[in-house]
Known about the structure:
There is one protein chain. This protein is α+β, with helices and mostly antiparallel strands. It folds into six domains: 152 residues, Bulb-type lectin domain (Agglutinin, subunit A), CATH 2.90.10.10; 135 residues, Agglutinin, subunit A, CATH 2.90.10; 126 residues, no CATH class; 44 residues, no CATH class; 99 residues, Phosphorylase Kinase, domain 1, CATH 3.30.200; 205 residues, Transferase(Phosphotransferase) domain 1 (Transferase(Phosphotransferase), domain 1), CATH 1.10.510. Helices cover 22% and strands 26% of the residues. The strands form twelve sheets. Strands 36-40-41-39-38-37 form a six-stranded mixed β-sheet, with helices on both faces. Strands 29-35-32-33-31 form a five-stranded antiparallel β-sheet, with helices on one face. Strands 1-10-11-12 form a four-stranded antiparallel β-sheet, with no helix packed on it. Strand 5 and strand 6 form a beta hairpin. The protein starts with a helix and ends with a helix.
Amino acid sequence: MASLCFPFLPILLLLLPFFPPSSTVAQKPNPNITLGTSLTARDGDSFWSSASGDFAFGFLRQSEGGDYLLAIWFNKIAEKTVVWSANRDKLAPKGSTVLLSTSGRLVLNDPGGNQIWPTTSFATNQSVSYATLLDTGNFILASKNSEILWQSFDYPTDTILPSQILNRGTSLVARYTETNYSIGRFQLTMQIDGNLVLYTRNFPTDLLSNSYWATNTVNFGFQLVFNLSGSIYLIAENKTILNTLSSNNPPTQNFYHRAILEDDGVFRHYVYPKRGTGSNSSWAEAWSVSISIPSNICMAINEGSNSGACGFNSYCRLGDDQRPFCTCPPGYDLFDPNDVTKSCKPKFVSQSCDESSPETYNFDFIPLENADWPEDDYGYFQPVDEDWCRNDCLRDCFCVAAIFRNGYCWKKKFPLSFGRMDSSVGGRALIKIRRDNSTLQSQNFDKNCRNKTKIVIGSVLLGSSLFLNILLSLLTLLIGFRFSKRKSKAVGRDPFISGVNLRAFSYEELDKATRGFREQLGSGAFATVYKGTLDSVEDNNLVAVKKLENIVSEGGEKEFKAEVSAIAQTNHKNLVKLVGFCNEGEHRMLVYEFMENGSLADFLFRPSKPTWYSRIQLILGIARGLSYLHEECSTQIIHCDIKPQNILLDGCFGAKIADFGLAKLLKKDQTRTMTAIRGTKGYVAPEWFRSMPITVKVDVYSFGILLMEMICCRKNFELEAENEDEMILTDWVYDCMKERKMEKLIKNDEEAENDMKRVEKYVKIGIWCIQEEPSLRPPMKKVIQMLEGAVEVSTPPDPSSFISAF
């Protein structure tokens, strides 16, 4: 696509220095940090530097109290500019240490020895031999033969550097303020679908709100590249440039470069002249902006569930330096003078809606030219003049501002959001404020009203007989006692769920949330799932309510609670989150987070194939979720029913395993589909039929079937297959591997055809997983290592060969 429009770009790309992520270091770094070496957070310098001294890794003090950030920064310039941090949300106190342990992990501990941050685990058969900070600003852990086992470039915070790449599924998250490095309100994501997108975040949660800039490269984008020539561009998987974000910049030999998503939501590319180089003598020793995306953040953000570029009741405008700043309108003050993003509050008492004492004479308007809050309209009129617009807002106690533009009038409600002031807006905002001295009058009026109320109540009580007072008091106490008892019963929590973030819902609540269980999302032999809305659920009020049938009757309530408690204690990004349950009478229901993109079955078995890259990411996510259930939970969980329908997709099309832990909630004789076992026909392991012990290997078998389906984008059994030999997927896949004709499995899938080595490896892994002898199947932890390339994959035998030998 891009090559047709820009035929010279692919050639230019070859000429530009381009370094994809490498598994080895081109030259052995120097100096090396050996195992057992540590740094301590203290006054003065405490860091390791790169060989050239351009970068430092260590502790930077962030407050007078002595809290420290473990970070990487530019070390040869006066301004210690941070490019990466480990503990951005949890600063380390003075005396904390960072240690390259003898086990090969980099660990940050507080003075008491409690762990604050460790490097993520990595699946490999190699061990860490040393660490070093490269002259690119990349901190690495490497093996004896210089294979990179972990690197900071794979876990960016808000900044990328020359030679760094953002792969699909990777994000930059802005800091909260310029000096507060904790997670902030904006995010740049190289999405799995290939689109590079800037989002606002539903701060302080991790959920994304709305996008305000994107490359619109869905199904094409592959990586965001920051090359050593100082250019930033988005490429397709065939290395064609799709979108150039920044180019024609001064050379990296003479200038430092960095690209950062800043706290104001703008992605900026900066350059800084290096000392001692002749070609930059005319440049000031300061960071200069090369490019800003978007160019006007005030106008870019105009929808979502947040306040916009600035806080509520505030407005954004660009300064002379083209940077946004937030301002309160007349009559409003900042909630927090030290944080302009925390919204503005009125300095006056709002207009009374009491019709018997209208306050129109207490209010006036202050105009703001070229200002608007576009998402707060509740009244719209035309054609009218400005006086009509003012008077209508003045008479309306709910109207806090009005916008008048070209004969149109918009009334605004409280709080105001997405405020901006820009010449392109036009018109004027009319801000309603209370007149001078009227605030005090209003407060005195309210105080007088309260005093009169007290007098009336007192008179009534004093004028009543003692008998009546006693009788009324007793009646009030009795009603209050019964009400509080009923309320405590309604909102009480079962003791078994203490310690986990799980809520007990009543049947009445869930019946109301689902509108009488009206909208069905899916059904099976033991449950039906309904879509619901719960205002009390955090982050997102949409939920999926699963009504269970055929729960064990003997000791059923105790067993149900025990199993639900075990499920609730799981916490992994590739598992669907359980947010609550209902255990009332005969009703047994589970309440899950809602997955807006449906099931893997809907995504996979459709006329247009999902991209090969997206399938790879889904395969890895499912494998990691299963490994967690098998090996990392406090109570080991065997899923027993891994299939595409039980893999759900979140908003970013990430895989999440559903229905884990439900097998033990079924009756002992409960059947599923056509088998008298726990599972679905086509995905069940042979040991179910042979009275063999059921272990986690039954899930490995099901994963193997699922893996083959995802490679081929077809179901495990297709009666209408082109050839009879292709009807049963597992047999066909094994035959293709044996005959070395695996390209038949991915026919008309160009993306997969260009990645045949991985296809062949994944086919072999799938066949290992479906071996009829359970001991031959690899555990899920090893499956992940095989998928990621950390463990070699040998050619598997015929899946049924071991059994047939007996």
